[in-house]
Every structure is written in structure tokens, then in C-alpha cells.
Design goal:
Blueprint (H helix, E strand, L loop, with lengths): L15 H21 L4 H7 L4 H23 L5 E7 L6 E8 L2 E17 L7 E4 L2 E2 L3 H19 L5 E11 L6 E3 L2 E4 L1 H9 L6 H14 L4
Parallel strand pairs: 3-6, 6-8
Antiparallel strand pairs: 1-2, 2-3, 3-4, 4-5, 7-8
Helix pairs in contact: 1-2, 1-3, 3-5, 4-6
Length: 221
């Protein structure tokens, strides 16, 4: 059974804000090209490749949509999902928040090609790499999001645990075991769902109340 989306809670749409940003950038580029080249602008747009700063938003939106789809498939029916949540006074957003008996989960979707690895050298700092490139800063965004949710939970339900996770699409994670980086797990959607589904102290009525509060504090982006 899939995770719930209560009628009285605006669950949001996964990837919506990233999809809008992609469409905005695409429309602006099309307008510029057609204005500069009125006769052949359409042809140039048809045969030319979109720039990375544009396509990255569509790819990110697709990743969020993929994660939401698979979590809905594997999560227990009593898990409440909030997608694409805005952060007050910030242009950033939280991809997904799950409210389950195991606690509140802050989930950051990542869509990258290549092997995901974590190195812990004897000297120096731990490093997260994807396809050989240093992506350690990815965890900073998640840590900030978790801190924001923890601040809200400290006010309304300080005893409820708050977890964070990076959820990967199209990446190569180890077949066995779980990578962690700075205490956060790096997971595929199915493995993440298994952790969210684990039992915990949060009752169904309390979960709904917390979901309502979190949806107000972090409205749809």
C-alpha cells in the first residue's frame, strides 16, 4: 500500500518548483534567440542543445518525481508525505518530508550518473565523490534542511526524532551495506522506504497533527 496524502493537508507536487524554473529558463532562452535571429531562430532552437544551466533543472525535477513515485510504492499506508516544500525567507526548498511512526524524515533527492563513494582518510576530511568528482557539499544542504525541521520539531514535539537522508536516482551505490556521510545515509528509494517504515514511537493521530504543522511551516514551493 502506498503512503497517504490526506485531503486536509496540501502534500505538494514533487519537482514542481524545479520544473517551473526549467520552463522559465527555457522560455527566456527561446525569447532571446528569436529576438536576435528572427529568421532562423526557430531552426537554431530546434537543432541546438539546451545549455546545462537549463537542463539541470529538468533533470533535478525528474529525480524528485522518481523518488516520490517509488516512495509512494514502497511506504506503508500510514506514512504521510510532503513534497517540494518552501523554506521561509529562502529560495531553497526541501524535496520531501516524510512523517512516519519512525519519526520525521527530511529527504534530498539527487540524480547523478556514476559511482557514489565515501572516503575516510587517516589524515584530512572525509569526502563524498560521485563519478570521481568531489560532491561533499551536497550534504551541507541536507544538514541545513534537517536543522530547520529540527527547530520546528523542538517547538511542537521535541521527543520525535528527525532524520535526514540523501536519496539517489541513476547513481551506483554499493549492493551491500549502506554508505553514510557525516552521519547521513545515502540510499536508493526502496532502501530508504524500509528505514522510514521501521516502527517507532509516533502514533497515527500525532503524525497527522505534525504533518499539518510542518505543511504550514514549510508550504508548497
Amino acid at each position: 500500500m502506498s503512503a497517504t496524502e490526506p485531503e486536509d493537508i496540501h502534500s505538494g507536487t514533487a519537482g514542481a518548483s524545479a520544473r517551473r524554473e526549467h520552463e522559465r529558463r527555457h522560455a527566456n532562452r527561446e525569447k532571446r534567440v528569436r529576438a536576435k535571429h528572427p529568421r532562423v531562430g526557430g531552426l537554431m532552437l530546434a537543432v541546438g542543445d539546451a545549455p546545462t544551466h537549463e537542463t539541470v533543472w529538468a533533470r533535478g525535477a525528474g529525480g524528485e518525481e522518481h523518488v516520490a513515485k517509488f516512495l509512494a510504492k514502497y511506504l506503508n499506508a500510514d506514512v504521510i508525505m510532503l513534497h517540494d516544500r518552501g523554506i521561509p525567507r529562502s529560495r531553497a526548498n526541501i524535496d520531501h518530508i516524510a512523517i512516519a511512526s519512525s519519526g520525521v524524515w527530511v529527504i534530498d533527492s539527487k540524480r547523478y550518473k556514476g559511482k557514489v563513494a565515501v572516503s575516510n582518510p587517516l589524515f584530512g576530511h572525509a569526502k563524498l565523490t560521485i563519478n570521481g568528482r568531489d560532491k561533499s557539499k551536497l550534504i551541507e544542504g541536507l544538514a541545513k534542511q534537517v536543522a530547520l525541521v529540527k527547530a520546528v520539531m523542538a517547538e511542537v514535539a521535541p521527543d520525535v526524532p528527525v532524520h535526514g537522508a540523501l536519496c539517489f536516482v541513476d547513481s551506483d551505490l554499493p549492493a551491500f551495506g549502506t554508505l553514510t556521510f557525516k552521519s547521513f545515509p545515502l540510499l536508493y528509494p526502496k532502501r530508504l522506504a524500509k528505514r522510514i517504515n521501521a516502527g517507532g514511537p509516533l502514533a497515527a493521530d500525532q503524525a497527522r497533527s505534525l504533518a499539518t504543522e510542518l505543511a504550514l511551516r514549510f508550504p508548497s514551493a
